[in-house]
Amino acid sequence: MRVAIVGATGAVGHELMQVLERSALHIDELLLYASPRSAGSQLTFRGQALTVQVTPEGPIPADVILASAGGSVSKALAHRWIEGGGVVIDNSSAFRYDAGVPLVVPEVNGEAALTHQGIIANPNCTTAIAVVAVAPIHREYGVRRMIVSTYQATSGAGQKGMDELLEQTHRVLHGQEATHKEFAHPIPFNVIPHIDAFQDNGYTKEEMKVVWETHKIIGDPSIRVSCTAVRIPTLRTHSEAITLELERPATPDEIRALLAQAAGVEVRDDPEARLYPMPLTASGKYDVEVGRIRESLVFDGGIDLFVSGDQLLKGAALNAVQIAEYLQTHGALRSAQRA
Ligand code: A2P
C-alpha cells in the first residue's frame, strides 16, 4: 500500500517516519509532502533517500494520508486529498468535533475508526495520553469526575517550540534576556498556565479539548472533566496529575493490577525505589507510564495517579500509525486510485 505524510519535515512528521519504519504496515511506497519551503529536500526511509514534494491541493495518490501540517492546511485541503480514494488520519483539531469524523485511540475505541467516511481525527496529545490510563478504569469502576493538571513539553508546539526552548535557554545561560514567539511568555526556567486561546468560560482551548475529547473517545459525556494545562520547559513528553472519583470504590492495588493488563500502559509505581513516571524515562517509549497510584484524600474510594506519555508518539505519530494498522487489520482501508 501507499502511505503519504503531509508535514513530513515537522516534529511529528519525523516521528511518523520512525514509527512507520518499525510498523507492521506493508508499505510499498512512502510519499512525503511539506510546504514549498522544504520541497526538494531529502529524507531517509528504510535506508532510501526520498524527496519531499509540495503538498498537493488536489487528490493524493495514497491509501493512507497521515496529516500533520496544522489545522488550517487540513481544513482547506483534506477533503481534496481523499478524492484519490485514500483515508486521511489527521493530527490537527480541524475535524475532531465533527459528527461524521471518528476521534480514535485504538486501545479505547478502535472500532469507531471503522465508521470513517474518509477522515479520521487523531486526538489532542494530552487527551490521548490520559485516556489510555483512564478508559480501563472507567470500564471497570465508572469514572464520575476527572480532574487533570498537566505538565506539557515544548514539543506540543512542534519543532519550533523545541527550538525556542533550546535557543532561549542558551541565551539566558549566556546572560541575555529570553524572548518568546511560540509561547505566551519566555519558557526557560518558567511554567506557563496558558496553552492555546482563552475561552469565554476562563478555561483555555487546550483545557477544553481534554473535556470534549475525553467525552467523545470514551463515549460518555456524563463524566465531569476539568483540566488546567501548563507548559513547562522540557523538550518532549507530557505528564499529567489525574484525580478520579469513581462509581465503585477501588483500591490502589486493584488499579495497579488492572492497569498492568491494559494495552498501551506501563505501570511504573515503586516510590521506595524512586520509580514513577517521568519525561526522562517515558520519552521515546510507545507505552504511557502510569504511577504514583494512591487513594484520593478528596473522593472516597477515588484514585490519584500520575502519567507521562511521549507527546510526539502516543500523543501524535504513534497513535496515527496505530489507527492505520487497525484499519488495515480490519480491512477498512479504501483503495486509492493509482496515479
Ligand atoms: P515546512 O518544514 O516546509 O515548513 P511543526 O509542527 O514541527 O512545526 O511542522 C509543521 C509541518 O507542516 C512541517 O513539515 C511544515 O513544512 C508543514 N507545513 C507548514 N505549513 C504548510 C503548508 N502551508 N502546506 C504544507 N505543509 C505545511
From TrEMBL:
<dbReference type="GO" id="GO:0004073">
    <property type="term" value="F:aspartate-semialdehyde dehydrogenase activity"/>
</dbReference>
<feature type="binding site">
    <location>
        <position position="231"/>
    </location>
    <ligand>
        <name>substrate</name>
    </ligand>
</feature>
<feature type="active site" description="Acyl-thioester intermediate">
    <location>
        <position position="125"/>
    </location>
</feature>
<dbReference type="InterPro" id="IPR012280">
    <property type="entry name" value="Semialdhyde_DH_dimer_dom"/>
</dbReference>
<comment type="pathway">
    <text>Amino-acid biosynthesis; L-threonine biosynthesis; L-threonine from L-aspartate: step 2/5.</text>
</comment>
<dbReference type="Pfam" id="PF01118">
    <property type="entry name" value="Semialdhyde_dh"/>
</dbReference>
<feature type="binding site">
    <location>
        <begin position="37"/>
        <end position="38"/>
    </location>
    <ligand>
        <name>NADP(+)</name>
    </ligand>
</feature>
<feature type="active site" description="Proton acceptor">
    <location>
        <position position="238"/>
    </location>
</feature>
<feature type="binding site">
    <location>
        <position position="96"/>
    </location>
    <ligand>
        <name>phosphate</name>
    </ligand>
</feature>
<keyword id="KW-0220">Diaminopimelate biosynthesis</keyword>
<feature type="binding site">
    <location>
        <begin position="155"/>
        <end position="156"/>
    </location>
    <ligand>
        <name>NADP(+)</name>
    </ligand>
</feature>
<dbReference type="InterPro" id="IPR000534">
    <property type="entry name" value="Semialdehyde_DH_NAD-bd"/>
</dbReference>
<dbReference type="InterPro" id="IPR012080">
    <property type="entry name" value="Asp_semialdehyde_DH"/>
</dbReference>
<keyword id="KW-0560">Oxidoreductase</keyword>
<dbReference type="InterPro" id="IPR036291">
    <property type="entry name" value="NAD(P)-bd_dom_sf"/>
</dbReference>
<keyword id="KW-0791">Threonine biosynthesis</keyword>
<keyword id="KW-0486">Methionine biosynthesis</keyword>
<keyword id="KW-0457">Lysine biosynthesis</keyword>
<feature type="domain" description="Semialdehyde dehydrogenase NAD-binding">
    <location>
        <begin position="2"/>
        <end position="116"/>
    </location>
</feature>
<comment type="pathway">
    <text>Amino-acid biosynthesis; L-methionine biosynthesis via de novo pathway; L-homoserine from L-aspartate: step 2/3.</text>
</comment>
<dbReference type="Pfam" id="PF02774">
    <property type="entry name" value="Semialdhyde_dhC"/>
</dbReference>
<comment type="similarity">
    <text>Belongs to the aspartate-semialdehyde dehydrogenase family.</text>
</comment>
<dbReference type="InterPro" id="IPR005986">
    <property type="entry name" value="Asp_semialdehyde_DH_beta"/>
</dbReference>
<keyword id="KW-0028">Amino-acid biosynthesis</keyword>
<protein>
    <recommendedName>
        <fullName>Aspartate-semialdehyde dehydrogenase</fullName>
        <ecNumber>1.2.1.11</ecNumber>
    </recommendedName>
</protein>
<comment type="subunit">
    <text>Homodimer.</text>
</comment>
<feature type="binding site">
    <location>
        <position position="311"/>
    </location>
    <ligand>
        <name>NADP(+)</name>
    </ligand>
</feature>
<feature type="binding site">
    <location>
        <position position="152"/>
    </location>
    <ligand>
        <name>substrate</name>
    </ligand>
</feature>
<comment type="function">
    <text>Catalyzes the NADPH-dependent formation of L-aspartate-semialdehyde (L-ASA) by the reductive dephosphorylation of L-aspartyl-4-phosphate.</text>
</comment>
<feature type="binding site">
    <location>
        <begin position="9"/>
        <end position="12"/>
    </location>
    <ligand>
        <name>NADP(+)</name>
    </ligand>
</feature>
<keyword id="KW-0521">NADP</keyword>
